[in-house]
Amino acid sequence: MLPELGTFLRFQAQRHLQAALRRPGDIVGPLIFFLMVVTLFPLGLGPDPAVLAALSPGILWVVALLSSLVVSGRLFQSDYEDGTLEQLALSPHPLALSAMVEVFCHWLLSGMSLALVSPVFAGLLNMPTQAMPVLMSSLALGTLCLSLIGAVAASLTVALRRGGVLLSLLSIPLTVPVLIFGTAAVREAALGYDPTSWLALLGALAAGGCVLAPFAIAAGLRISLEA
Q1: Would you give per-residue pLDDT tens digits along the chain (227 residues)?
Q2: What is the DSSP letter of 163?
Q3: Predicted TM-score (pTM) of this structure
Q4: What span, in angstroms and rounded, lies between the C-alpha atoms of 154 and 134?
């Protein structure tokens, strides 16, 4: 049973990664959105380096949240439209695991890529260099949390034609702790303090989400399929 499940999950991962790579706009789009929004802040706030450096942790995290919302709405959409989601629900393999494979692939291609290039955006806002490793670490953990939250909301709205607004209303209140912890970690690092406790809280949220979110996602998908 376990070898068969491993083969199934590996096939699912390959399928989602190949589908995403055939649509490079889904990967590059959030990065371009991030860049465009970040470059608007110096125009609105002024070019003062001290002001931009002080506000950069909050700016980068808010934009990361918005980028996550932009792409979360497309989770499970293609599988729902072509009937694959119904087949996965009828499969002997747990729907929660199948859905989590797609969420992790989505996170690797969107959240991790955003975390890796975040120092470039941080440099545009004059963030201190000692805070950039913490920025990358916090975004890696935080975007995983955001992907899990977005997946839960997407599972409930996948059957709706215009579920984007509802997805945002469901997601944003749940993302507030992630936003607070991530911003606090980067701000502490920028000021020269120890951000370990804030990163630990983000890690705890990510670990808890990986345990609990699959069941919520599976339940949401079944509700959407039965609607």
Answers
A1: 556 777 877 888 888 788 777 777 777 877 888 888 888 888 887 778 888 888 889 999 998 888 888 788 778 888 888 788 888 888 888 888 888 988 998 898 888 888 999 998 898 888 989 999 999 999 999 999 999 999 999 888 887 776 667 777 888 889 999 999 999 999 999 998 999 999 999 999 999 999 999 999 999 988 888 86
A2: -
A3: 0.90
A4: 29
Site of tokens 């083969």? 7
Look at the block and give the residue holding tokens 């701000």.
Answer: 187
Side chain identity at residue 39, one-letter code: T
In the chain, where the domains are located: 2-226
Q: Where would I find the H helices in 158-195?
A: 164-190
Q: What is the DSSP secondary-structure string of 50-108?
A: HHHHHHHHHHHHHHHHHHHHHHHTTTTHHHHHTTHHHHHHHSSS-HHHHHHHHHHHHII
Number of residues written out for the chain? 227
CA distance between the termini of the chain: 32
